[in-house]
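Notes to self after the call with IL:
- keep both proteins in one doc
- input above output, always
- annotate only the second one for now

Protein 1:
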Amino acid sequence: MTYTEAVKHLEQARFSPIYLLTGEEPFFIQQILSGFREKVLEEASRDFNYDHFQGESLDPHQVLMTAKTFPLFSMRRLVIIQNADLIKDERETLLGYLESPCDTTVLVFVAAKPDMRKKLFTALKKKGTAIHCALSRNRLYRGGLLRKESGGESPFRRRQHGT
């Protein structure tokens, strides 16, 4: 799935339990992650249901415990693993979760250049939804996709009624 398709996917608010977000375009990756935070989580309960981990210091058991925890005052929990390509130990621990993910959790693995030969990334691509953010800026300017994003406003902002 491309950046454009991912934006449409998030707008529809039908979420897969697992995502693999790849690419070396940090602007688009941050936009997609903002979209996940804004669309998956209800604003009032965001602090209770959002967890963020770094791959280089990841404890897979803690991730599993968090991902299996039911959301509090919300329909879903969001767990983001940044730098997933730097996960060193116990990757196999996460493979079991990928076979049977929790329906109330959206788990997003973010990796700039994942090694698709590794079991974890092969399983993520097979079991999850892959989003690749590597479109060139020239192509996006010509396509008009950077309309509001270039001004810093997220394309996923909820519209306020009456304003």
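Protein 2 (the one to annotate):
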Amino acid sequence: MQSDNTPQYWKNISTHDIDTVELLLRDNGHIDIIIYHMHQAIEKILKGLIIAQGEDILFIHDLKRLYAILCSVNQKFIGLEEKIINLQIFYKDLRYPISDSLDDSDLDSAKDSYESILSFLFEDL
């Protein structure tokens, strides 16, 4: 088993969530579960990038805090604040599922943020 303190580990496990998002989108999965896996993928990518910068990670799920840590050690990643905040907004609904309150416009909003963040960060991991 690969150590969880390497960037490659976090990149590898983020691809599980990325693949799951793609499958669920294709198959019209439940919106809350799709957004949950979007959040998980970005969380894991952020943790991998933090480790790649030589920093220790916090085992938290707050995308805003993880992103702030990453930007504090490498300003190259600045510019995604709005997208990170938008995806983080859904987290309380994901932890305490109330999927009936999420609709297609929520999915579109989360997907826009997710895709922007993913395209900006993934290749650096």
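Annotation: The two ends are 19 Å apart (CA to CA). The chain has one domain: 7-124.
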